Amino acid sequence: MNTNNPTIKLLISYHDKHRLLKSDILTPIQTGCALAAERFEGMLQDDDGENISTGNPQYNELTAQYWAWKNYAKLGNPDYIGFMHYRRHFCFDESLIGQQSTWLSASCVYKMPSATDDYLNRNFHPQKISNSLKGYDCLVLKAYDVTNLGSSSNRHHYATGIPEQNVATFDLLLETVLKFFPNYEEEVNSLKNGSEQYLCNMFIMKKDLFFQYCQFLFTVLAEMAKQVDSSHFTSQQNRFLGYMGEYLLSLFIKHAYRTHSFRIKEINGFFIEDTGCSYDIKPVYKTPFSAIVMACSREYIPYLSVCLQSLVEHAHISSNYDIVVMERDIPAEEKGRLKRQIERKNVSLRFLTVPDLLADKQKIKIKQLPESYYRLFAPLLLQGYERIIYTDCDVIFNDDIAKLDQISCPTAIAACRDVMMNARLGLTWADWKRYCREDLDLKNVYDYCNAGVIVVNVTQYIKENIAFKVLKLLTSKAFRGSVQDALNSIVKNEITYLDPAWNWPTLQMHMKRMQFLSAMDCHTLNLYTHVRQLPRIIHYASFRKPWYYLQEDMAEIWWGYARKTPYYEEICLRLNQHETSKIFSCRYKNRHQNYALLYLSYLYYKLMTHITSGKKQARYKTAWVEAKNEVELWREHS
């Protein structure tokens, strides 16, 4: 070993996707790969070679330690090896510790809001890591005293402070250690009756010491696994071997202190609160440098599946499709299910787990799900791409999406004019023209665009700082409906207009009753009617979605694709539950509520009749009379 410049590998355990920490020293490893629905890119997997990956529910991050022990050569035979978590880090730069609170009461592990680039560069500078090991064989977090958590001893803490654990397991651990390593008797008594321990299964050790520790650790844990019947354990109870690992590390360190067998250094640590992914997603294919991006919540998974099914059915073998789904709560097994559904040689599906990016969401005037805002952030998080094609997932692709990528987009955004807004502008009883002209400050109200399908020139979008401007506007001003309004207000018609066939909205029944078609100007009506014959993307933009309302416009096309997905039965079940809920709600639950709403409408129209004049007064008077008649009918039949 080169004592002046030893080789070091610090493995970082990941069970879910979080910010990727990777360097010559920092080495990410996915744990539980043998049971995982998705294999993470850019890291080691703990089921490669000799492993205990299937035991991850019991061993937790210790499956990474076992893998390193049995596959050490694959790491390049480093002089030192260590282990951290994606969230819990060693502190190699004391200057980063300020007035932060601690992870546990009175602990040496300090909270950090997030792992910023500055934090990573300073804390994990190779020279700082190397310097921290000079003169030492082992590095661990400073010992923690569980009396700070109200426990009298380590045994008492295991019995009362760790969820769903049985103190008999703790006692069995100590018995097992004495069975195989009787020279640990003093340490066993100290651990049982004392209150200090070494947490988190985190350490850095010289190679020979690491092998010695693993022999000790896994000898005891293997015997524990045999002795404890975990067949009916809950997932929390099942983690018992991982907890035992912390106690075994404590015994090993305490024994070294007593016997002076190796030199130990104890240091502080950090607990990272926001571990959002690094967004380091690069293009999968050499060409094109474009991503197809969607946003999806857990609830929308089946409908995303239908959307993706239509996309791949129109995909051409000579084109590549690099699909990225932005999400925050889609389970790993569902991600795997979707990937199996559509992935092929020229179709890639990846998921970008997005943390809470809306620090000022309480100030935003529009209350929508976080996924509604992801289209704003997509270009910022996917800067490795030249262009992004963003689509909502309540669409059906009726043509090859690769054709859209061939369209020139010199402006920050390309989109289709919103034909339904054109109809709203023509409704004589509404004030949408005033709203678009005054509230949105549009130069031409008829150029209002729908943001359900947009092409983004990433460089130009970032250069114009559009995401920041839109969010700033949303915090200062209330809009009627959506992020779409604010986006239109910021770009102010300075966009590239797409063929309307790329975002053709269906005409729903309530729109027909409101005479939307007749409210459109002649040019737009002719265009809408013409595009209906062969739309490239069908957008079910209104609230009456085809998965709940089979009689709505173009619903049969949506269901044609739904039948081919692995979610068809679930979609049907949801439909049945929705129909049952509607019937129950109408007949029983909302009878009095329906009357109340009707009566409120009657009072509203009556009031407006008295405070308006001219044509408006005439319309309100007609509505008032109709509402009055309905109220009287209700009373007669109730």
UniProtKB/TrEMBL annotation:
PANTHER family named among the record's database cross-references: GLYCOSYLTRANSFERASE 8 DOMAIN-CONTAINING PROTEIN, LIPOPOLYSACCHARIDE 1,3-GALACTOSYLTRANSFERASE
Protein name: DUF4422 domain-containing protein
Keyword line: Glycosyltransferase, Metal-binding, Transferase
Annotated source species: Candidatus Avelusimicrobium gallicola
Domain DUF4422: 9-255
GO molecular function: glycosyltransferase activity; metal ion binding
